[in-house]
Design a protein that fits this description.
This protein is of the alpha+beta class and about 160 residues long. It has 5 helices and 8 strands. It starts with a strand and ends with a helix. The structure holds a DNA duplex (12 and 12 nucleotides).
Length: about 160
DNA sequence: GCCAACGTTGGC
DNA sequence: GCCAACGTTGGC
């Protein structure tokens, strides 16, 4: 059974167009610095899982595309890179604290705006809609996944 | 720039 | 190990 996830990205960092234009339309999901999100990648994600690509911290937050998990979890090189904004000085020598997976584009979609998501009762249970939700990776239920795809299939 | 939520930190 | 304070996220 395929699992589904919602993954937040700031378009200023990596937008759906950046993913579209990336080599093999695949990017490494670097920069996750939350243990919960890391553990999802390490313990639960499987290659082929569905991903809702979500734009956050921007003028028009919402779901911008569909993607798939394209690798298992592997060490996020930015944790050791002092020149990276994701450098983590607390990671001790030889430690691997942070992981990332690769994500491959399936297709860009119309923007399913946060506003529209909130307005739809079928999506009311989505974790990303909870106030002040900070988790950058959240599981999406079968029902939520179907409801999102149904909304995306409608013209908006 | 405010606020809400909540994980993390640090003093004890 | 408790728990208050702090820091971060992210929408508005």
């Amino acid at each position: 059974m395929t699992q589904h996830w919602l993954m937040k990205s700031e378009p200023a960092e990596c937008s759906i167009d950046d993913l579209f234009n990336a080599a093999a339309q695949t990017v490494a999901w670097v920069g996750v610095r939350s243990y919960q999100a890391r553990n999802f990648m390490r313990d639960a994600m499987r290659i082929g899982d569905d991903v809702l690509f979500y734009h956050s911290s921007c003028a028009e937050p919402g779901i911008a595309g569909l993607a798939k998990v394209a690798s298992g979890a592997y060490p996020d090189a930015t944790q050791w890179n002092v020149d990276s904004p994701y450098y983590d000085a607390k990671v001790v020598r030889d430690e691997v604290r942070w992981l990332n997976v690769d994500v491959r584009l399936v297709r860009k979609t119309r923007l399913l705006a946060l506003q529209e998501m909130r307005a739809n009762p079928a999506l009311a249970t989505m974790q990303v809609l909870r106030p002040a939700n900070r988790l950058s990776i959240t599981p999406v239920s079968d029902e939520e996944w179907l409801a999102v795809n149904h909304l995306l299939a409608n013209k908006g």
